[in-house]
Write a structure and sequence with these properties.
- The structure is a homodimer.
- By secondary structure, chain A is α+β, with helices and mostly antiparallel strands.
- Helix content of chain A is 40%, strand content 19%.
- Chain A has nine helices and eleven strands.
- In chain A, strands 1-8-3-6 form a four-stranded antiparallel β-sheet. Chain A has a four-stranded antiparallel β-sheet with strand order 2-7-4-5.
- In chain A, helix 4 crosses helix 5, helix 6 packs across helix 9 and helix 7 crosses helix 8.
- Chain A binds a DNA duplex through helix 8.
DNA sequence: CGTTCCATTGAGATGTGTCAATTCAAGTGG
DNA sequence: CCACTTGAATTGACACATCTCAATGGAACG
């Protein structure tokens, strides 16, 4: 440890390691997630050329901080990232969790400064996509432009889902919805939809869902007692997916209006 | 009245009326709001040419409905629009209020279908901006592309502010924040920042802020008793702006961490 | 192997929701 | 112009979900 990083030059610092995180978009296992559109291989290569792949972030390390100049958006390659902002009165609000194949940082575009901070929940590798290059490339590649419009639009609709969740749903419903969200995002990456390890703490979960840690804990206990989940610290096993969906919100039979 | 619209041809239908809502972007009083960037006059004209200006919406009329094909985004020119989605169990969630100079509909891009519905809270004029044209124009006008990236990014950060509000703040704080938001949006349009008429019902306010009507009503009463607001049905007068800001969240002195 | 942070569980407090009754505002038809 | 109707807003009493405070147990890390 204690490498005198400053003395070896910037490019060497970020490029020294030659491990497998130096893949390119063309052969990245996740490219169908973060680039779902049909770019032809020449276009992928052009995109590939602007992307920086730095050293993995250690747990707790920041990817960027609220307020700093916005220069790039980021794609998660491995690990998990949480985004959060600090309210005027000093409390933290978690605004999102990001898993491999997902893109974050787009909130920084509007003011040219990041509107939230992002830190690694566990060791994480990310691809940095310089935004100025991306913009330029987008004017030349309409499909890429469209893709980014769509990504941002997706972020909006997801935020709106969270708004609805916070505004209308009980603690149990919120937790169920989060577990289902993580489950389906796992499935998208061909991982188990029913068994996974939560990268975030109960505190972060509560913070994200507008609940206290104690409530989160109690809900997990209750769902375990109901044999819907098996919870062992951060290890989660979904025992009854249908029941979980039921709780999440789709109470199906309802209403008269 | 009773114009046989179908018989006169499409362009005639949307262009017949020659009232003052047929302004162009170049002379629109709001263009510094919805087009804050420095497009030169030739560019403004090109943008102007793709924008449709239809007949004003009557109160309660829909601009678009959740699920229908996404074809355009909309700029409000007068009146007010509310956006809302219907949850799986049939309840409504208001996701935003839109005032003159503001743009809505961007949530529809990701899935090519509107993710929420939008209806007029009062008589409202809107400009329709066909998205396919906008995309095309964006590839030719980098400034316009950037502007739309920024608009979408702004929508994201605003949604995140709402998330924070819902997740962390009391009823009083939420109402105060909404009043301040409306106040500053009014000011942006050179209207009074301290006196205005709410276009939405208490129900909508409560729904938007994750509160019941009764709570909204009680908070208004309380703020009135404290001589911070003067509330007369939908007419609001802010008597003590600083106190309102204080309540909204900036409790200023706080915390130790 | 202790320190520290995270997680769980309990008991009691409280803000907001629910239910219900009343008042008020707006629009309609006589 | 005045009853009448209808929906919106206000206010009160009570219930309950979640928060707060507090104590204990467990995992992780040096």
């Amino acid at each position: 440890m204690n490498i005198p990083a400053k003395t070896v030059g910037e490019s060497a610092v970020t490029r020294k390691c030659t491990h497998d995180y130096r893949v390119s978009c063309g052969n990245c296992r996740l490219n169908t997630l973060c680039l779902p559109l049909a770019l032809d291989s020449a276009d992928v290569e052009r995109l590939d050329n602007i992307i920086q792949r730095g050293k993995p972030l250690q747990k707790g390390e920041h990817l960027y901080q609220e307020g700093v100049a916005f220069t790039a958006v980021y794609a998660v390659r491995s690990g998990a990232i949480k985004a959060y902002r600090v309210t005027d009165d000093g409390r933290e609000q978690v605004t999102g969790f990001y898993f491999p194949g997902e893109i974050l940082g787009m909130d920084g575009i509007s003011k040219n400064a990041h509107a939230c901070s992002a830190r690694a929940l566990e060791t994480a590798a990310v691809c940095e996509i310089p935004f100025s290059h991306l913009q330029e490339l987008s004017t030349q590649m309409p499909d890429l432009q469209r893709h980014f419009f769509q990504l941002m639009s997706r972020e909006i609709t997801e935020d709106q889902q969270l708004i609805t969740l916070l505004s209308k749903n009980t603690a149990e419903e919120r937790i169920a919805a989060l577990m289902l969200s993580i489950s389906s995002r796992n499935a998208r990456r061909k991982l188990s939809a029913t068994q996974f390890r939560l990268p975030m703490s109960r505190i972060d979960i509560g913070n994200y869902l507008g609940l206290t840690v104690e409530t989160v804990s109690r809900v997990f206990s209750r769902l375990q007692k109901l044999e819907i989940l098996e919870v062992s610290n951060k290890e989660i096993k979904i025992l009854d997916l249908d029941a979980l969906k039921e709780i999440a919100n789709v109470h199906v039979q309802e209403e008269d209006e």
